[in-house]
From TrEMBL:
The keyword Transferase applies. The gene is epsN. CDD domains: AHBA_syn. It holds the Pfam family DegT_DnrJ_EryC1. Its EC number is 2.6.1.-. This is Putative pyridoxal phosphate-dependent aminotransferase EpsN. The keyword Transferase applies. Belongs to the DegT/DnrJ/EryC1 family. It comes from the Bacteria. GO terms for biological process: polysaccharide biosynthetic process. It comes from Tepidimonas thermarum. NCBIfam families: NHT_00031.
Length: 386
C-alpha cells in the first residue's frame, strides 16, 4: 500500500480541496431547501400534519415504482414499522445479514424478534442467496405453510437483506426463496435510493422496503425515512401505526392499538422535496466520482468495489477492498491523519456483545469483507446552488 500518499493527493484533487477535512459524505443543499422550508413555515404546518408530507410520499412512490410510500421520522422507524405490518411478532426469528448497520437488527429487536445471520457475498456485499438457502435447508421446515425452526419450533417470519453501500443485493433470487419458504421479504434499502437490479428499483422486490433520508444518505430530510409497498392494506396500517394508531375523526382521540409517533414532520418533508429536485444531478455526480475512483484503482492495481452485473448502483459510498486487516488499518490511519475521511465497514453484528449470541450460519465472507473493505469520500461534486 505504498500508494496511500498518491491516493490522498488524488482525493484532494478530485474534490478541489487542497487543505481542510474532506468528509465521507456531505449533504448538498442551498437556496432551494431554504425556499421550501420557508413555505412550510409560512403555512404554519411544521409538524406531523401537512401537505408536503403527502407530496414527498408521492414523489418517493413514483420514483421507486411502488404504489404507496409512508414517510417516517427516520429509516430505523421505517424498518420497525415495515417489520410490524409484515407480521413480525415477539418470539419470531428474522433472517438478515451480519454485515449491516446496527439499525437493521435493532428494528428486528424492537419487534421482540431475534435476528439470524447468514453470510454475504463479495460481488454485491449483500445477503448471499446460496447461504440463505443452505441455512433454511439445514434448520427450517415448512409446517402448515409456516416456516419454523426445526429444533425449537419457533416461527421464522421474515427475511431482511440490505443493499450494502447502495449496491443491489441479489433480491430476485432471495425473493424466490422467500416465496418457497413462506417468508415475508422486507428490503433494507436505506442506502440504496437510485439503485436498480434488472431495471427495477430496489426496495420493491418484496412485501415492503425501507429507505432512510438521514444527513449522510444520497438525499436527506435532516432525519427521515420511508416505507414503500404495493399493498394498500399494509400501507394503510403502516400510516396508522406511525400516527399513534389514532382513528380518523374530527375531534376524538381514539387509538385502537399501541402505535408510534413516527410520522415525518412537514418541515422535514419540505426540505425533502427540494432535495428530490436535485436527485438526478446528485446521482450522476456520484457516478462521476465512482468512475474517477475506478480509473484510479485500475492505474494503481487497487481493488475498487464496482456495481454488480445487471445492476445500476447509486454508489452511495465508494469502497476499496484492501489486501488484509493490517493494510486496512494502515490506510485508515494515514488517510484520516491527512484529513481525508475514510472508514471501515461496520463491526459485523455477531461481533457486537448485544447480538453475539444470535443464531448464525458460517460467516467467512462477512468477516473477510469487514476486515478489508474501506469507504472513501463520496460526496457529490455538484455544489448547493448549481
Ligand atoms: C442509515 C441506515 C439505516 C437507518 O436509517 P436512519 O435514518 O439513520 O434511522 C438502516 N439501515 C441501514 C443499512 C442504514 O445504512
Amino acid at each position: 500500500m505504498s500508494d496511500v500518499g498518491a491516493f490522498i493527493r488524488f482525493v484532494r484533487e478530485l474534490y478541489g480541496q487542497r487543505e481542510g477535512a474532506i468528509a465521507l459524505h456531505a449533504p448538498t443543499m442551498g437556496q432551494r431547501e431554504k425556499a421550501w422550508v420557508n413555505q412550510a413555515i409560512d403555512s404554519t404546518f411544521v409538524s406531523s400534519v401537512g401537505a408536503f408530507v403527502t407530496e414527498f410520499e408521492q414523489r418517493i412512490a413514483a420514483f421507486v415504482g411502488a404504489r404507496h410510500a409512508v414517510a417516517t421520522v427516520n429509516g430505523t422507524a421505517a424498518l420497525h414499522v415495515a417489520l410490524r405490518v409484515a407480521g413480525v411478532q415477539p418470539g419470531d426469528l428474522v433472517l438478515t445479514q451480519a454485515l449491516t448497520f446496527v439499525a437493521t437488527c435493532n428494528a428486528i429487536t424492537y419487534c421482540g424478534a431475534e435476528p439470524v445471520f447468514v453470510d454475504v457475498e463479495a460481488p454485491t456485499l449483500g445477503m448471499d442467496p446460496e447461504a440463505l438457502a443452505a441455512w433454511l435447508a439445514d434448520h427450517a421446515v415448512l409446517a402448515a405453510g409456516q416456516c419454523v425452526e426445526r429444533q425449537s419450533g419457533r416461527v421464522i417470519r421474515a427475511c431482511v437483506p440490505m443493499h450494502t453501500l447502495g449496491h443491489p443485493a441479489r433480491v430476485d433470487a432471495i425473493a424466490q426463496l422467500c416465496g418457497r419458504w413462506g417468508l415475508a421479504l422486507i428490503e433494507d434499502a436505506a442506502e440504496a435510493l437510485g439503485s436498480y437490479r434488472a431495471g427495477r428499483h430496489v426496495g420493491t422486490f418484496g412485501r415492503l422496503g425501507a429507505f432512510s433520508f438521514n444527513g449522510n444518505k444520497v438525499i436527506t430530510t435532516g432525519g427521515g425515512g420511508a416505507v414503500v409497498t404495493d399493498d394498500e392494506a399494509l400501507a394503510r396500517w403502516a400510516r396508522h401505526l406511525t400516527t399513534t394508531a389514532k382513528r380518523v375523526h374530527p375531534w376524538l382521540f381514539d387509538h385502537d392499538e399501541v402505535g408510534y409517533n413516527y410520522r415525518m414532520p412537514n418541515l422535514n418533508a419540505a426540505f425533502g422535496i427540494a432535495q428530490w429536485e436535485r436527485l438526478p444531478a446528485l446521482l450522476s455526480s456520484k457516478r462521476q466520482v465512482a468512475d474517477a475512483y475506478r480509473q484510479w484503482a485500475d492505474r494503481h492495481g487497487w481493488c475498487f468495489v464496482q456495481e454488480p452485473s445487471d445492476t445500476r448502483s447509486n454508489y452511495w459510498l465508494n469502497a476499496f477492498c484492501l489486501p488484509d486487516l493490517q493494510a486496512r488499518d494502515a490506510f485508515l490511519q494515514a488517510t484520516n491523519a491527512a484529513g481525508v475521511m475514510t472508514r471501515p465497514l461496520w463491526t459485523p453484528m455477531h461481533r457486537l456483545p448485544i447480538y453475539q449470541r444470535c443464531r448464525r450460519g458460517d460467516l467467512p465472507v462477512t468477516e473477510k469483507l469487514s476486515d478489508t473493505v474501506v469507504n472513501v469520500p463520496s460526496s457529490a461534486l455538484t455544489q448547493g446552488d448549481e
